[in-house]
Amino acid sequence: MPLLPFAGRSEQAIKGEPPVEVSALKPSALPSLKGPSRLLRLQSDERLIALVRRGHHAAFEAIVSRYQARLLAFCRHMLGTREDAEDVLQEVFTAAFNAILADEREINVRPWLYRIARNRSLNHLRRATAIGMDSMDVHFADGGISTGEKVLRRERFRQLISDVQELPETQRTALLLREIDALSYEQIAEAMETTIPSVKSLLVRARVSLAEAAEARKLSCAEVRERLGQVAEGLAKLDAPARRHVRSCERCHSFRKQLKANNVALAMAMPVGSIVEKFREELEDEIEAARERADSGALAEAIPVGVTDPVL
């Protein structure tokens, strides 16, 4: 659905009454706007915030125009569909508008808007019963490349987007903020309400995870099964790309379970050394489980419950 324009301070706010959401206003209550003027578009974020608080209707339009495309891209990557992203973006700008009018506190606009967008996206994901994936609507310029090459590029792009969606939420958020709007470590830390060292760690782990996912797709089932056989014999440890392949490949996952079952059966049939073998199997299972938890970030990066906008 199309994004609605936002007005500046409403008459209720000017008279001292509580601000209302823009979406609740009737069309006749909104001033007739033709978009922000060129002069307003050249103003700093801080100046625009001050103008909004003084009742200048077009100043908020300038803020929306400045950040709408980037916030929409961020929400779309967080939520998976353009329709959901547009719905959430309406909530983001409505919440931002009311928050600006709520008090006179200083606002660092860019990370502040991304913080609201992230929180609203997480709340939307909790409410949703199912999230669909629409077309990415990506078009490549010809540039002299063949149709086959364009199809290959498009497929690689889709795979990358899918891998980004599979990242733990905090890694995905940090990476999107860094790549979509080139936010600094300080701005990302402010938007995510965390520390700069944590942001750097999240970005490193996200990039490593994406590289491992790409490597996992290059592995054939035969290669992975050979490695699983070496692991079962105690000759090697399963590396991260192979672990990813096993998690995503049902046949290799079943093959791994069968290897473990065979080891247990052999230990029961041939009791010599069975105690040592049983201990080795249990230790390997514990080590493997710890690695999978580290890969998925399940311990440190569970989505916090009840996230609310920090300014509302």
Overall description:
- With 312 residues, the protein is mainly alpha-helical.
- It has helices at 11-14, 38-41, 45-53, 57-79, 82-102, 109-127, 147-166, 169-181, 185-192, 196-218, 221-232, 240-248, 250-269, 274-296.
- It folds into three domains: 1-134, Orthogonal Bundle (Rna Polymerase Sigma Factor, Chain: A); 137-217, Winged helix-like DNA-binding domain superfamily/Winged helix DNA-binding domain (Arc Repressor Mutant, subunit A); 219-296, no CATH class.
- The chain is built from 14 helices and no strands.
- Helix 4 packs across helix 8 (169-181) and helix 8 (169-181) crosses helix 10.
- The model is unreliable at 1-34, 129-145 and 302-308 (pLDDT under 50).
Which CATH architecture of the largest domain is right?
Orthogonal Bundle
Strand element count: 0
Any idea what the CATH superfamily of the largest domain is called? RNA polymerase sigma factor, region 2, helix turn helix motif
Largest sheet: none
Which CATH first-tier class of the largest domain would you pick? Mainly Alpha
Work out the radius of gyration: 26 Å
Question: In the CATH scheme, what's the topology name of the largest domain?
Answer: Rna Polymerase Sigma Factor, Chain: A
What distance separates the N and C termini?
Answer: 26 Å
Strand content: under 5%
> Secondary-structure element sequence?
HHHHHHHHHHHHHH
Helix content: 55-70%
Can you tell me the number of structural domains? 3
* Structure class: mainly alpha
